[in-house]
Amino acid sequence: MSAAFLNPLARNGASVINSARSIKSWARQLLALPDEAVVTVSELACHVPGCPPKETVVLVMQGTDMLQVSLHMAMKDVTEQDLAHALSDAATAGP
Which residue, 11, 50, 60, 85, could crosslink 67 as a Cys pair with Cβ 3.0–4.6 Å? Predict the structure, then answer.
């Protein structure tokens, strides 16, 4: 039996984890978040007609405040500039 098992169904595990870590770090820096703030990053499949096949959702929770932004692209494709733009749009849109 092979020493290393390669899961053919894995979603590029290390790549997804590294992308999520980068996006979380960028969000913390861009929003100047304290350590106790919670940042989650999820990649979702979109089944709505006309919607891109993948969507990255960033959720920031700080106390009772919550901010959610969606980027209509796969997590691996999100750049710091994409996130900065989405956060800026969310800030100007208000509650």
Answer: 60
